Inverse folding.
């Protein structure tokens, strides 16, 4: 049985890890979506800026491996928070790097379907 | 502290003509009082704000407000990140909410500057005989893990005259017990003007002197400020309870230094000794953080030693969670030697067993740990002990007795019974054979619990539901019916053991109870249920090679020879023909584990948390029909494709144990027709159900409900009662 909010999160990661962030991500975020850092500082405001942040990251690295795990799904009425850990191995400027972190993504149901409305990126936790 | 603020918000809103709505959809105002102490608060708030956005979309006149520490830490960013929020305010700014709601022009507005104590606002007390009295706000400590100084600011003491006036008014209103509140209560008074400056011990004496007040408590004190005069007050003041909550945080001086707690292990123990000298019967409770960055096994052992030495009556043990903007959130998590970091969840994995170990130490304490007062989190108001719930003056030791009394029995006629919000929560476990309808009962029960103000969450205790991608085989609950934890949290290619499950389940259950929510543990896998509910000593998995070797040997020499190798104690509990258990028992003995003791002994007396256990049964024929229907539904819904996908992803040995997996695998390999596979699955389910029922009959302390012919709502009603 699929879980649409979880599928949104997986689709976001599938899009950027597959090199399709520019084409596929706009359909996965709400108009007013925001991305914040671990200190809650705003990193991107609005759908275009959110997508662009993925596109820029995607363009700046060569992804070797990406794994998401330890998913926790919290439901609050119609809203769902998906909290998961990830491991990303990638090359940048000739150096291979490994990032660990957790993402917290608020997924809400809109007239167009489920969309990510808020994301907190917490690298190195 | 937050609960205290909430009471004041409620009181103020009622004075403005608002009433509590039964559900959010019917509310004109949706208000969140927030906390920044714990990481989970962020997730919960963000999720609830997501729901509030939808409701605001349905009715734009609905007001959404966010108050408290989280709001204070974000300030105007609340509006940037959540543009539908109308009003945001920090702690101590509750009066501004009233100002906003009564203004003619409802433009979004934030209030984040502390201007004074909100103590004059009318409170809405949850317990008529008990009240909280705020004596200070803010904190001058610089504990590296704590966000309070940045959200509540520097310490500001409230004038003693105002405090005493409030206590007198409360006493006149029937209150017999007051709890003095502050982030660091025992540093009270140092910032007061010279002409009214008094210390915390002096304040305690003033409050003790108020006529009608029979019990005085306080929270939270800091060990560094636990001075002789405060300790002496416990020995001298008639109403001051013989209970001190003395947060330890860690027993390792090295970690205490990293935490910037300003005391070390010896200094802390000296305080304990001083307390015990002055008040020999004083109950001591504490807070402990496990898994602080860089904590080694040696540091943890030091904490265990202090816990054993002090013999706390109760403790709140929680796993370190980094809070944004704190020094500790930036500390590297240097792994201890031999504990190389495997991935991002490494510290959590280390911390959970450590937290369990601490709880185990407390349980062995003859002082009665875990049976006394519910511990509370730093920076939060304490949860009431059952004795506090009804106004009793003489509760168990850990509740803290007043020194003088003669007030046996109830002081206040409090008619509240079970299910009243705020009562000490306990968890509910629903179990029974596959197909009996546990999930639908849990969903119905959740509805009943919500009606009486509880906030239920299901915790799945199912060996297969943990796996991602095995939705049909595990008959996972439909999304949106009831929040389920420990579902789809393990990739299908991973091995997973009951020991790993126990760590996750305990962490989930503890966190839910700590958040004031009601966990409903639901499952049919006996081992996983016991893992979730008990401190079952689940031995680590033995090396696969050893098991293979034993199985090979068993095939060669036969079960009776292998059975003869078991110790007499173990052999007495294992049937000579039970090949599987013989191998497992030998594995354990070779690994140096305790003799096998029979799986049914670990139940009611050893529950790690108070729980109500409900076993659901059903007429065999009816259950059999339901099982067959379930298998058909499973196959019709795409179980074959599910197994195919799981195999492509490298399904692990433990994932392949899902009922129906092997049979479908055989069908995919062309070894059986779909019809044959279906019949085998039904037979497999029936055999498994027989084992589940046999096991269930042996379990003690369980209320068994036969739901033959009963709809889920009736069963839920019975459980709710």
């Amino acid at each position: 049985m699929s879980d649409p909010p979880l599928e949104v999160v997986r689709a976001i990661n599938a899009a950027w890890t597959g090199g399709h962030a520019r084409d596929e991500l706009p359909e996965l975020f709400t108009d007013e979506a925001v991305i914040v850092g671990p200190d809650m500082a705003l990193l991107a405001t609005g759908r275009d800026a959110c997508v662009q942040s993925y596109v820029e990251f995607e363009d700046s690295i060569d992804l070797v491996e990406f794994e998401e795990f330890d998913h926790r799904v919290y439901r609050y009425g119609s809203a769902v928070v998906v909290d998961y850990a990830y491991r990303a191995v990638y090359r940048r400027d000739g150096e291979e790097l490994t990032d660990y972190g957790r993402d917290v993504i608020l997924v809400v149901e809109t007239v167009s379907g489920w969309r990510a409305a808020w994301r907190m990126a917490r690298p190195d936790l | 502290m937050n609960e205290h603020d909430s009471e004041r918000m409620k009181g103020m809103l009622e004075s403005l003509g608002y009433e509590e709505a039964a559900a959010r959809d019917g509310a004109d105002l949706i208000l969140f009082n927030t906390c920044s102490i714990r990481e989970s608060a962020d997730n919960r708030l963000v999720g609830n704000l997501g729901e509030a956005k939808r409701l605001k979309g349905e009715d734009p006149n609905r007001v959404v407000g966010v108050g408290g520490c989280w709001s204070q830490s974000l300030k105007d960013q609340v509006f940037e990140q959540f543009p539908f929020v109308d009003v945001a305010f920090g702690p101590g700014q509750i009066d501004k909410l009233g100002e906003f709601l009564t203004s003619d022009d409802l433009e979004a507005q934030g209030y984040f500057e502390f201007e004074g104590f909100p103590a004059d606002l009318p409170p809405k007390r949850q317990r008529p005989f008990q009240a909280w009295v705020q004596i200070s706000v803010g904190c001058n400590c610089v504990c590296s893990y704590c966000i309070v100084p940045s959200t509540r600011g520097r310490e500001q003491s409230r004038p003693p005259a105002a405090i005493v006036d409030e206590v007198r008014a409360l006493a006149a209103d029937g209150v017999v017990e007051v709890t003095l509140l502050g982030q660091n209560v025992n540093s009270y008074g140092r910032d007061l003007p010279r002409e009214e400056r008094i210390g915390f011990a002096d304040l305690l004496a003033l409050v003790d002197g108020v006529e009608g007040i029979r019990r005085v408590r306080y929270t939270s004190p800091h060990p560094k400020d636990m001075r002789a005069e405060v300790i002496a007050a416990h020995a001298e003041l008639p109403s001051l309870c013989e209970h001190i909550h003395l947060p330890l945080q860690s027993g390792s001086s090295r970690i205490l230094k990293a935490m910037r707690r300003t005391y070390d292990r010896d200094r802390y123990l000296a305080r304990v000794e001083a307390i015990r000298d002055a008040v020999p019967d004083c109950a001591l409770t504490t807070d402990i953080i496990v898994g602080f960055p860089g904590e080694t096994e040696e540091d943890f052992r030091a904490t265990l030693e202090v816990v054993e030495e002090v013999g706390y009556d109760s403790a709140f043990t929680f796993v370190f969670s980094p809070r944004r903007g704190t020094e500790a959130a930036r500390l590297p998590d240097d792994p201890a030697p031999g504990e190389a970091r495997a991935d991002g969840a490494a510290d959590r994995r280390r911390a959970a067993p450590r937290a369990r170990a601490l709880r185990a130490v407390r349980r062995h304490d003859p002082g009665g740990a875990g049976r006394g007062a519910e511990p509370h989190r730093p920076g939060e108001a304490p949860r009431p002990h059952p004795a506090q719930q009804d106004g009793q003056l003489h509760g168990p030791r850990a509740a803290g007795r007043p020194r003088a009394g003669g007030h046996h029995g109830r002081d206040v006629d409090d008619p509240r019974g079970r299910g009243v919000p705020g009562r000490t929560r306990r968890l509910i476990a629903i179990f029974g054979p596959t197909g009996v309808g546990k999930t639908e009962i849990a969903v119905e029960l959740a509805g009943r619990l919500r009606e009486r103000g509880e906030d239920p969450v299901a915790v799945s205790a199912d060996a297969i539901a943990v796996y991602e991608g095995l939705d049909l085989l595990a008959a996972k609950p439909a999304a949106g019916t009831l929040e389920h934890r420990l579902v789809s949290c393990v990739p299908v290619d991973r091995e997973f053991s009951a020991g790993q499950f126990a760590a996750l389940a305990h962490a989930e259950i503890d966190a839910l109870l700590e958040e004031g929510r009601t966990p409903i543990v639901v499952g049919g896998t006996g081992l996983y249920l016991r893992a979730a509910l008990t401190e079952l000593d689940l031995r680590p998995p033995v090396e696969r090679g050893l098991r293979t070797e034993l199985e090979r040997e068993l095939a060669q020499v036969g079960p009776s020879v292998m059975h003869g190798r078991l110790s007499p104690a173990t052999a007495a509990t294992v049937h000579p023909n039970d090949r599987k258990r013989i191998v497992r028992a030998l594995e354990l003995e070779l690994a140096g584990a305790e003799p096998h003791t029979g799986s049914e002994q670990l139940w009611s007396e050893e529950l790690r948390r108070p729980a109500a256990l409900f076993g659901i049964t059903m007429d065999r024929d009816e259950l059999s029909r339901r099982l067959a229907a379930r298998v058909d539904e499973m196959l019709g819904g795409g179980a074959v494709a599910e197994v195919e996908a799981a195999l492509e992803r490298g399904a692990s040995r433990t994932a392949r144990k899902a009922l129906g997996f092997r049979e479908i695998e055989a069908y995919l390999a062309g070894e059986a027709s779909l019809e044959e596979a279906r019949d085998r699955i039904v037979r497999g389910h029936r055999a498994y159900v027989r084992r589940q029922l046999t096991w269930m009959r042996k379990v003690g302390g369980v209320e068994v409900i036969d739901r033959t012919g009963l709809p889920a709502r009736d069963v839920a009603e019975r459980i709710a009662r």
About this structure: Residues 335-349, 362-424, 594-605 of chain B have pLDDT under 50 and may be disordered. The two ends of chain B are 32 Å apart (CA to CA). The longest strand of chain B covers residues 283-290. Chain B has five domains: 2-118, 125-244+378-399, 248-377, 427-536+603-720, 544-595.
